[in-house]
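Suppose you are handed only two things: the residues of a chain and a line of SMILES describing 2-acetamido-2-deoxy-beta-D-glucopyranose. What would the bound structure be? This form records exactly that question and the answer produced for it, so the two can be stored side by side and reused later without any lookup.

QUESTION INPUTS
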Amino acid sequence: MHIEVLVLFCALTFKTVSLTMISKSVVLDKKTDFFWKYNITNYVGKISYNKEAILFDSYEGRAEVFGRNFSLVLKNVKHSDSGDYTAVVVGEQEQSIAEYKVIVQDPVSRAELTVDHLSSSSDSCNLTVTCSTVEFNISSIFRCDAQNCLQVEEKSLNVSKYFSSLIVYLQHDTIFCNHSNKVSWRANKKVIKLYCERKLGKTISKLSPHQMFVLSVGLIIMVIAVISVHLMEKKKKKNKPF
Ligand SMILES: *[C@@H]1O[C@H](CO)[C@@H](O)[C@H](O)[C@H]1NC(C)=O
Ligand SMILES: *[C@@H]1O[C@H](CO)[C@@H](O)[C@H](O)[C@H]1NC(C)=O
Ligand SMILES: *[C@@H]1O[C@H](CO)[C@@H](O)[C@H](O)[C@H]1NC(C)=O
Ligand SMILES: *[C@@H]1O[C@H](CO)[C@@H](O)[C@H](O)[C@H]1NC(C)=O
Ligand SMILES: *[C@@H]1O[C@H](CO)[C@@H](O)[C@H](O)[C@H]1NC(C)=O
Ligand SMILES: *[C@@H]1O[C@H](CO)[C@@H](O)[C@H](O)[C@H]1NC(C)=O
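ANSWER OUTPUT
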């Protein structure tokens, strides 16, 4: 029998995690019971054919099983709750019908973004930044000319041991440093202009396409208005009775 293994990531701060029988109808009779198992050898709870749900001692007060829908809810999850949860039907034989791999993660630590090196001339600007967390850091270089800024060295770091990743990237002339895992992310940013524009002077403050558009539309409306007024004046003159 094919059973689907679902991987659930849950944050320590989320507190509860719900394991549900999805699209499975479980039919029990006098000779079969339903169990939630943890890591092969431990039993969490049991549901009997009359839908009576029972938790075993070590889960008393920190979990719930529901006889009606066969779901299991773990409360106040801890790192030690990580592992494999299996739903089994036990009669003459034991049959697994669902499996969940639960991974409890801490929310990520804060990511710091610092500018380490800045060199700028009249027409370009080079910025070296370091994006760091408690566990690791990466540095990245950004270059701006009068028109654009771009990331010269693209960096990202995946550390599987912590199940988290650190990435530095450029978006709308802002540098982002993002530390994330499956349950949370924390980002920090720096606006490049604060470092580079001062030196590059006014050349960088060109009109954006949007500003250009607004200005053009404004001009066109003004021209049309002037022409209309002019034409109306002309018409008025023509229509004047002698
Ligand atoms: C299962 O039943 C319990 C109690 O009726 C309910 O609180 C819970 O939301 C149900 N779970 C699902 C996934 O339907
Ligand atoms: C349960 O299994 C997981 C994954 O195999 C393991 O990391 C964890 O230590 C086990 N927990 C217990 C209490 O056996
Ligand atoms: C920035 O780096 C590029 C390539 O190394 C170099 O050509 C340029 O002169 C640098 N600009 C400044 C202002 O240091
Ligand atoms: C970055 O990590 C290296 C080792 O990987 C360490 O030597 C260096 O001090 C770290 N730098 C910062 C700014 O944390
Ligand atoms: C890091 O992981 C993400 C998603 O898991 C992937 O898209 C990215 O390419 C990885 N980066 C590196 C440098 O391995
Ligand atoms: C940080 O990374 C996470 C996970 O990839 C993503 O959901 C989030 O939007 C990112 N935040 C920023 C500010 O880029």
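WHAT STANDS OUT: The chain has two helices and 17 strands. The chain has a mean pLDDT of 81.
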